[in-house]
Amino acid sequence: MRLLPSKVISPKVGRAAVDRYISGIGLGLLLLGAGCRGLRAERQTHALSTARQWSLRGSDFLQQEKYGDAENLFAEALRHSQADERAHWGMAEVLWEQGDEDQAIAHMEQAAVISGANPRGANPDLIVRLGEMAFARGDYAGALKQADAALSSQRDHGGGWALRGKVLQHQSDWEGAKFSFHRALAAQEHYPEVQIALAEIYQTSGRPQRALATLDAMMDAVQEDEVSSTAWLLRGQAFADLGQQRDAKLCLRQASLNATDEECELLLKVAEKQIDFGELAEARVCLGRALRHDPNNQNARRIQEQLDLSFQSFTSKSSLIGFELPTP
User: Fold this and answer.
1) To 5 degrees, how large is the angle CA 246–CA 249–CA 254?
2) What is the pTM of this model?
3) Quick one: DSSP state of residue 227?
């Protein structure tokens, strides 16, 4: 039997086949890698979605000031995904309320970093909150830095201008503070915190009429029972400077009614002004509340001596005209 010669494969054809084989393997590996990355991305997306559901529930509890429940829910959210901006924000707020300031700031910083990955840029609200935390800790340079960072992200951000004004007011830069507060009001017309701060600047700089106008604009937008004790005190001081004692007394009385016992310094300011107006019984009530909250307050002791002298003086004058003052 005659054997047919075997088919000879040329070297050139062989190399082409090998190249196609290798290319096929490479393509397969690429497709496999892409599939793995896609699967991993899908898992991450699912984890983030789950985390956001937990953090949304945590936000509800945080709003209700149920900090223990909120902390558990935010922790669960972060267990699912460290990329949940809301979970870091919520955990920061809970820890801040619990007094763990360092960890609170760390979580708020992480929330701001995550928000920075957004195509629209970092969330200025988170940056401002970081600045407010810095201000509360006495880090005024840090607070100013965060205010400027927020304004770089969004130039007309009311909170950024408000924080900037707050820092400058603390540093006695009255003009800079007024400019910042006015920019904040341009961005947000009704802004009680800013309006009160602005009124304080006008009042301390000898412009009580402008202080009243600022407070009136604020009070026109709220119910009377929503007005803070600080606003009532400022109105009382402004009316007093304008010589309108009747209105001043009414405002001081309202400031006392709205104040909590924890507002010790405000109560002392009210008492001191009431002594000036001769409303000694009302002053004693305010002073008593302040002393119950802080028995060792030196300012309160000074006002107590002032009040005692005023009672003695009033008693002496009353006895001269045959009128006996009831024992307080």
Assistant:
1) 130
2) 0.79
3) S
Task: Give me the helices (H) in the chain, please.
Answer: 11-63, 67-80, 85-97, 101-116, 124-136, 140-153, 158-170, 174-187, 192-204, 208-219, 229-241, 245-258, 264-276, 280-293, 298-320
How many other C-beta atoms can be found within 10 angstroms of the C-beta atom of residue 288? 15
297: exposed, middle or buried (C-beta count within 10 Å: 0-12, 13-18, 19+)? middle
**Residue 197 domain-assigned (yes or no):** no
272 within a domain of the structure (yes/no): yes
Range of the structural domain that residue 271 is part of: 259-318
Q: E strands along 128-223, which residues?
A: none
Task: Report the SS3 class of residue 174.
Answer: helix
- Cβ atoms within 10 A of the Cβ of 10, count? 8
Q: Are 234 and 211 a contacting pair, CB within 8 Å?
A: yes
Question: Mind listing the pLDDT tens digit for each residue in 37-77?
Answer: 555 656 668 888 998 999 999 999 999 999 999 999 999 99
Amino acid at 167: V
Q: What is the CATH number of the domain that holds 83?
A: 1.25.40.10
* Cβ contact 236:252 at 8 Å: yes
b/e map 48-82, b = 16+ CB within 10 Å: bebbbebbebbbebbeeeebeebbbbbebbbebbe
Q: Give the domain-ending residue among 104, 123, 142.
A: 123
Distance CA 20, CA 240 (A): 95
- Assigned domain for 217 exists: no
